[in-house]
Structure formats: structure tokens, C-alpha cells
Amino acid sequence: MVDIRAWPRPVVLLCGTLLVAGVYYAAGRLGLSQQLTADGAVVTPIWPPTGLAVACLLLFGARCVPGIALGALLVIVSLGRPGVESIGIVAGNTVAPVCSYLMLRAVGFRVSLSRLRDGVALVFLGALTAMLISSGMGVGMLVVSDKLPSGDLGLVWLAWWVGDAMGVLLVTPLLLLLYRARLPPASARWAEAVGLTVLVAFLVPLIMYSTVSLLFLVYPLLIWSVLRFQLAGGIPCALYASVLATVVAREEVGAFGRLSDIETMMRLQAFNGTLGLTALLLSAVITEQLNTRRSVERACQELVEALQHLNAGGSQSQGGSP
């Protein structure tokens, strides 16, 4: 096995930059494969590279910035001949995750997402606030370069902002979870996990492709996943349902049939957003409660052991007295 730590530091940084850029590019191409057209404007309901960029920064620090910028440039180049506006778009897609990372660090964010404050910070600082930068700079550069009609400004900006935010809400927690994931010991919960996975995989497509709007039926499955498995159950379920909803919306069938382009985008973004918020915040609340309960139980156990030790010491002193 090759020991990377023995490599020269510039080589390690170069390899890391290329790796981040390659993964960013792959995530970008994946996001572009699920485009929607709304009133003539092309939008991506979920933009995975933003979630990937924020996760890399949280896990490995600022040394990932060059890889993020290079990956954003590769995605733009893959779309055609880049223009002057590409500089602003690359800058926005790089600065926004960095600002997200800095704001989360400033409030003491924990990558374990074990507290409600961590979930709230990721939603309102890491996603909703920081992604105003990427959407604002991107749309602004398109308008300045006459690549976007002023009449489409509001719609494109909203779709860009929500797509970037959804990438942070759904992709970042999943990557943070996978980074610290460990195979749990065999237990009865394995059977429940497998059963829940099969049920979600079977029912969610039926709900999405139903000609009757039954999107609300996804939420009981999501809540069950969160209640039993917290983040490990909620985020994959939410991401699976969001991706499938995007596919159905592109096909203009099921719950998204007989809708205009604007109505399709608004319904899809609202659905995806509520899924991500529910999974992230509810799992954070439950995890925090479980950790508090374990702390109380541990403190009670230590108190019992201390009392037992004191009683044992008292009995020995009484037995040894004349």
C-alpha cells in the first residue's frame, strides 16, 4: 500500500486538487442531466456540486478551494465555448461554498449534525444565505453579458438559488454521514432497515407516477426513516424521493402532469425543499434528544457506582472497628 504521507506536499496538494475537481465535474454533469425548462429558461432543481463543495471544505479545509474552482470551470467549459460571464459564474460557485464554510465554522458547526443548532445552521447559513452569492453572481453576469433577458431574471435567479441550496441540504449531510460511517453490529434493526428500504424503493415510484397528486404520502415514509435511523435514514430517503420527483417532472407525468412549466418548477422546488428541511431538522432534533438521554443515563450510572463504592467503604470501616 502506498503511503501518501511520504509524498512531497506539492504533489499531495496537486493530487487533491485534481481529485476534488474531477468529482465536482462528475457531480455537475449528473446535475445537468436532470434539467428542466421553465418559461424558456433551463434550470437544475438540485445542483449536487454545491453540496459536494461545502462537504469537502468542512471535512478537509480551505485546501479544497482550488479544486472547487477548477471543477466549476470544467463544468462550464463542457457546456460550450465559455464567455466573459464564465469568470463570474466560476467565482460565484467558488465563493459561495467558501462563505458557507466560514459561516458554519464561526457558529461552531459540528459535522456529526448531532445538535439542532447544527441543522439550523446548515439550512439557514450554509444553504439559504451562502447560496445567494452564487445565484446572484451567476444571474448578474448573464444579464450583464446579454445572455439572459431581463424578463426571465427573477425566475432564473430563484431556480438557481433553490437548486444550489438543495444541493447543500441534501448532498452535504449525506457526504458527511458517509465520511464517518461505520458498519454497525448485527442486530434486529438490520431487518427493519432492509424492510424500510424495500418499502421506500417500491412505494415512492408508485406515488410519483400516480395520476392523482399523492406527494404528501412520501412524508410518513420519511418521518419513519428519521424516527428509526435519524440522519442515516432520513437523508437517503429524501434524496431518493427528490431525484425521482425531478425525473417525473422532466417526463411531465404523474403528479407533475398537465402543469405549466412554471407550475412544475414551483411544485418540484417546494416539494424538494420541504423534504430536505424535514429530514435534516427532524433528524437533528431526535439525535440531540438521544444524546441527551444517553448523557443522563451515563451520569445516573456513574452516580450509582459512586454510591455503591461509598457504601462498600463504609461497611468495611464498620467491620474493622473494635
From TrEMBL:
Record InterPro entries: MASE1 (IPR007895)
Keyword Cell membrane applies: yes
Compartment(s) of residence: Cell membrane
Membrane topology designation: Multi-pass membrane protein
Endpoints of the signal sequence: none
Highest taxon above the source species: Bacteria
The protein, known as: MASE1 domain-containing protein
